[in-house]
Amino acid sequence: MKVLVPVKRVIDYNIKVRVKPDGSGPDLTSVKMSMNPFDEIAVEEAVRLKEKGVVSEIVVVSIGMPQAKDTLRTALAMGADRAILIEATTDVNQDIEPLSVAKILVHIVKDENPDLIIAGKQAIDNDANATGQMLAGLLGWGQATFASAIEIADGGALVTREIDGGLQTIRVKLPAVVTADLRLNEPRYVALPNIMKAKKKPLEERPLAALGIDIAPRLKVVRTVEPVGRSAGVRVASVDELLEKLKNEAGVL
Q: Which of 74, 169, 186, 219 shows the greatest Cβ crowding within 10 Å of its Cβ?
């Protein structure tokens, strides 16, 4: 059984993001980048399935800058077998939109013929939460989003997913697309010996031009601002005054 895991290079979650002076977007100059945390969870789940003997091969793929090779090497160090990089841009400020990513992944799926795709439910830079769903739609595959547990058996995947009212367990036939939620697992620490071994694992680089896909953005960022700082609290003299402020000033009643 082959599993395909898409991974994205994003600003490290420990970094405080600052906005450019002109408000055109986040300032990415000399900012530490790393694998999207939800994608890291997806890679970990694929590796765990391989350790159980369910999965025979794990292929990770990233779409973006040449520097994404570092992200792929991290996935290889975690336990993935092969990596594919689609060089789609050299501009660190260009974020490839979910539909374009899904269309590119369709080509990869046709070449690799995986039995299962495990992806992070969203990227922490744009929080789109759309690529997995779009990919399943383009492929005509079943999908299970926000997975907190995955079990492979009898040619299908039994997926426990988080919903507003609690947990829902569904079964999807393979091949399928599953998106990983935060509580699916805790990714392992990558040891130095595995990092060294990852350098010898195959990493294929493919130009976007060979796929013939237009990744021109359909959305335009009008303005980016930092969150407003929290203002100081006020002391009220009575419940009536509190209700009045909540209704007329805060607008929550």
A: 74
Cα three-residue angle 66-62-8, rounded to 5 degrees: 100
User: Could you tell me the domains of the chain?
Assistant: 2-222 (3.40.50.620)
Tokens of 166: 């609690």
Helix (H/G/I), strand (E/B), else coil: 132: helix
In the DSSP assignment, the letter for residue 90 is: S
Q: How far is CA 154 from the centre of its chain?
A: 28
Query: Over the stretch 197-252, which tens digit does the pLDDT of each residue have?
Result: 999 999 999 989 888 898 988 888 888 888 887 778 888 899 999 999 888 887 77
Q: Which two tokens stand for residue 93?
A: 């400020």
Report phi then psi at 83, rounded to 5. Answer: -135, 150
Q: Please, are residues 109 and 101 in contact by the beta-carbon 8 Å criterion?
A: no
- ∠ CA 130-135-141, nearest 5°, is 125
Angle (nearest 5°) at CA 105 between 120 and 8: 40
- 157 close to 174: Cβ distance less than 8 angstroms: yes
Contact criterion met (CB below 8 Å) for 64 and 125: no
Contacts of 97 (CB under 8 A, 6+ apart): 128, 215, 217, 218, 219
Alpha-carbon torsion, ordered 10, 125, 204, 141, to 10 deg: 150
According to DSSP, residue 211 is labeled G
The residue type at 219:
L
Nearest in space to 75 (alpha carbons), one of 114, 119, 44 = 44
**Amino acid at residue number 151:** E
Helix (H, G, I), strand (E, B) or coil at 204: strand
pTM of the predicted structure, to 2 decimals = 0.87
Distance (Å, rounded) from C-alpha 168 to C-alpha 158? 10
